[in-house]
């Protein structure tokens, strides 16, 4: 076996080992698994404040306690898809942020609302401050899928494959930023699993 071939094999081995060590895992069709079900930090997530508000429970991310936003710091979204299975409890409020800036309190960026019975009338599937849905498509305590698709200034939010928001933001308010999850208040409890991201070309 010549030296060039040995060098190529060593390089391939190193690349495989690097991928195995990476917190990012790739699924089919360009989807990236954003959470390994074990470690918040190792999966690339960082809280802007009150990190104790986020815990891992049975392989899921759980939000409870003080106000906190959990950012996926691995890659910023310009044109992307972001989806998760969500379980929002009675009286709770949460959200899935995209193209958002890392910062304290409630960050600047788009928010796909997660809310079945919280006193806030803006319910799941809304694009907060842009398009309001007042009828929750899911009941508290049940799992549902929320799927965000953002390309240019066109934003679509689906809940269980049903389109709730289909909006063109003429002002193109936010063009690039992180993905994040919201823990809204001490009375709110929310669970997330199967968090997935896809970069769109």
Structure explained in plain terms:
By secondary structure, the protein is mainly β. It has one domain (25-199): Exo-inulinase, domain 1 (Jelly Rolls). It has one helix and 14 strands. It has one helix spanning 3-21, and strands spanning 25-26, 32-33, 45-47, 54-57, 60-64, 68-77, 80-88, 94-100, 110-114, 143-151, 154-159, 162-168, 177-183, 189-199. The strands form two sheets. Strands 1, 2, 4, 5, 7, 10, 11, 12 and 14 form a nine-stranded antiparallel beta sheet that branches. The chain has a five-stranded antiparallel beta sheet with strand order 3-6-13-8-9, with no helix packed on it. β1 (25-26) and β2 form a beta hairpin. The longest helix has 19 residues, at 3-21. It is globular, with a radius of gyration of 18 Å.
Task: Describe the structure concisely for a colleague.
This protein is mostly beta strands.
Taking all residues together, what is the mean pLDDT? 90
User: For the report, how would you describe the main beta sheet?
Assistant: 9 strands, antiparallel
- Structural class based on helices, strands and sheet pairing: mainly beta
What fraction of residues sit in β-strands? 35-45%
């Amino acid at each position: 076996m010549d030296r060039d071939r040995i060098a190529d094999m060593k390089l391939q081995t190193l690349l495989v080992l690097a991928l195995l060590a990476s917190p990012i895992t790739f699924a089919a069709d360009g989807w990236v698994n954003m959470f390994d079900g074990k470690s918040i930090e190792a999966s690339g997530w960082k809280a802007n404040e009150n990190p104790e508000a986020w815990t891992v429970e049975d392989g899921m991310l759980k939000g409870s306690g003080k106000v906190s936003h959990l950012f996926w710091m691995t890659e910023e979204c310009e044109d992307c898809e972001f989806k998760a299975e969500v379980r929002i409890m009675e009286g709770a409020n949460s959200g899935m942020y995209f193209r958002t800036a890392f910062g304290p309190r409630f960050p600047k960026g788009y928010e796909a609302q997660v809310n079945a019975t919280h006193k806030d009338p803006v319910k799941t599937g809304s694009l907060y401050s842009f398009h309001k849905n007042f009828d929750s498509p899911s009941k508290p305590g049940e799992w549902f899928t929320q799927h965000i698709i953002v390309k240019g200034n066109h934003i679509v939010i689906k809940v269980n494959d049903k389109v709730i928001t289909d909006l063109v933001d003429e002002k193109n308010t936010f063009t690039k930023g992180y993905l994040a999850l919201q823990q809204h208040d001490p009375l709110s409890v929310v669970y997330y699993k199967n968090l997935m991201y896809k970069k769109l070309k």
